[in-house]
């Protein structure tokens, strides 16, 4: 009887070898390999550039190209500490439009520290030679993302020129932009209350060529730009 039981046990082991094999070969969830970690994103470059075509160059609502198109662009470097430096340029014609000789290119160099509170003050000389040190410009601007690449913006600003009220004025702007991926197109309506009557010989009348031109009048501006 004892021999028969042993023989039966051994036979059963040979009759069902795959059952035990299947149980030991199936991996448990804990034994499965963990998914590979996603590769780390490349750090953003501290250098950026920008390029824009505009139907007209307007600075604080004042014409710089007398209703003609402008080509603009620049480069910036931003350090992780917050310091930045950059350069920006644009085609211009306002010097010639105002009856003077001068370059047809504006080139700006700038730098600063993001997050600091700064004042926008400037100084110059009035047509009569008086100093305007302590003059300034107050800027209030809001930009809103509507989603789908659409954005709207609104701006109002006031320039105050010390001891020369004829150069002081308020400007405003309402704009709409659309990001198409290859670039951002924009349309904006701008205007000022700058004194630009050529009949009265006011400050913002550019007298050349003949007939004069009110540099602060309301106008529509079209732009297309790309940041890279």
Describe this structure in words.
The chain has 228 residues and is mainly beta. It is built from 3 helices and 14 strands. The protein has helices at residues 2-15, 17-25, 94-97; strands at 47-54, 58-59, 62-63, 70-78, 83-91, 105-113, 121-122, 135-147, 150-160, 169-179, 184-192, 205-206, 213-214, 219-227. Strands 6-5-4-1-14-11-10-9-8-7 form a 10-stranded antiparallel sheet, with no helix packed on it. A two-stranded antiparallel ribbon has the order 2-3. It has a two-stranded antiparallel ribbon with strand order 12-13. A hairpin with a 6-residue loop joins strand 12 and strand 13. The radius of gyration is 35 Å and the shape is globular. The termini are far apart. The relative contact order is 0.15. Mean pLDDT is 81; it is low at 1-25.
